[in-house]
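Handout, page 2. Input:
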Amino acid sequence: MTSHMTYAEAMVVGLVQGVTELFPVSSLGHNVLIPALIGGSWAQDLNVSAPESPYLAFIVGLHVATAAGMILYFWRDWARLIAGFFSSLRERRIATADQRLAWMIILATIPVGIAGLALEHAFRVVFSKPIPTSLFLALNGVMLLWGERIRRSRLQSLATPGKAPLSVPVPGAVQPPEAGSAPGAEPASAPGPRPASAPEAGGWPAGQREGPPTVTLDDGREVNPGRDAEIARAIKADRRLSAMGFGQAVLIGAAQIGALLPGISRDGIVTVAGMLRGISREDAVRYSFLLSAPVILAAGVLKIPDLTGPLGAGIGGQVIAGSVLSFVGAYLSVRFLTRYFAKDRPLTPFGIYCLIAGLGSFIYLVAR
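Output:
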């Protein structure tokens, strides 16, 4: 069987896959909707739900390149976490922050792995069609906007004099000391270095909007804005994430199951789930990135046999071209988003985009 996919189609899909997999706007949703909106040969060649189509294998195969871009950007973090995992096996204990977080990522990946193997085909056949996908994309936008609204309400509740804070804490806000702790002591749930100028309830001073805030390390050294500060902030974030507990880590990770629906973003739903559980937006985004890499990589590896078999006949060059653009798109996207959320910027623009794009696509597809 000879598969039909042009280089133009492969390159557009590759770039869209790399970018939208990291942005909270659903890569699968875009890869279903774009061919349908363009129409013609695109709609015929790039149909996810069509039987014996190489398209699904192609876009999932691109996940290997997408994951490679993410892993390259976070290679220092992954080196720490992998070292923590093997040291925990060697020492037969889970003691350090890196050891805890490594096991949290592994355990939190299990639910979506099982659900993906069991439900992926059924979800693709039933839901991976343009009109349902457009509605799910709009729903994704509502979810992002709702998550931001809940976050603002919690911050306002904490800032209102005489009003008791909600039961779910907001990281960054000063929490009352636990019984028996010394007055003025740091809460146990917030280990690690603190940003030198971090506000108590989120948000950075206007003068620091142009770059990541200076970070004070455990030894008292201040790291200047830039990549070094970003690395120091990542270590600090991992320490906070490792303190959230295994149950909560798995619960937030299980939210990825919702991303089996085309139009629902994996990173978006994990970020909102984390925010609802009291994790700061920046930490929730980071956790979503750390969870995404192994899932995306595993999904891509599982589809490689399809691309090397009959379904991949005649599209080897297209796969390479799409993979290169997917790799570049993923690397640049995660670089941008890491810095975007480090400035305490909201999910709102992405939510508005998904809502408009989803509803606009729905109206167009129904009316044409």
